[in-house]
Amino acid sequence: MAVRLRSWLFSPAVLSTAARAKSSFKLCVAALSAGGEGAGRKMSSPLHPDPYTTLKERAICEREIKHSKFIAIASPISDERSAHSFLSEIQDPKATHNCWAYKIGDQYRCNDDGEPSGTAGKPIYLAIISSGVDMVMVVVIRYFGGIKLGTGGLIRAYGGVALECLKGATTCFVKPKVPIGMEVPFELLGPVYHQLQSFQVEDIKQDYDTGKDGVTMLTFRVDYEKIEELENTISSTCSRRMEFYKQ
């Protein structure tokens, strides 16, 4: 059966309004995803990011092995930029080596900083994996004590002090919130805001440039498992089916 589409659906005014609303939401979600910084964490799944365990605060551990001093410092990080910032802050140019590794979801990097290849950065990274934490960076600073440790000794030293540092750190469980957007008529802003607060959403932003009279775009972050309940609750409260935009 042929379906006849009304010609006004393809009018320049309607198409322009739809495009502006979609563009407005994309810009708001981009800002939310960046977290106010130049680069944000890339989620493994845009709509269903996995919860993870990370460090609640920085931790430090010091060991002396054959007269060499090893100092491991671990810290939670949010993205690659914060990892480099942490490294710049705590590395010691007077030390013999500043070796490090970090893990941000599926992304990771490690550096031997002059130690034989694979004897420092990789063991630190494997310590992060073994400890079960994510969004974490560990820097191990070494002051050479005059006795060479050999390949196996270096691997055990760097990996061991990194793992000891992480095991002694205070951890926390994080359930990432996902960005959501919705168009809301002005007269419904009150009840919608009330429900958003009751669901403990974060980073609420409002944009009036939707191209529609009397309508604003709200963007916010909410726990993934609460999305469906929030949609149903708001639609019930407003006595109409509200449209939600997901990244």
From TrEMBL:
Signal peptide: 1-21
Alphabetical UniProt keywords: Signal
Keyword Signal: yes
Residue span(s) of domain Impact N-terminal: 66-166
Keyword hit for Signal: yes
GO cellular component, one term: cytoplasm
Annotated coiled-coil segments of the chain: none
InterPro entries: Impact, Impact_N, Impact_N_sf, Ribosomal_Su5_D2-typ_SF
A single BP term in Gene Ontology: regulation of translational initiation
PANTHER family in alphabetical order: IMPACT FAMILY MEMBER YIGZ, IMPACT-RELATED
Family membership noted in the UniProt record: Belongs to the IMPACT family.
Protein name (record): Impact N-terminal domain-containing protein
Source species: Apostasia shenzhenica
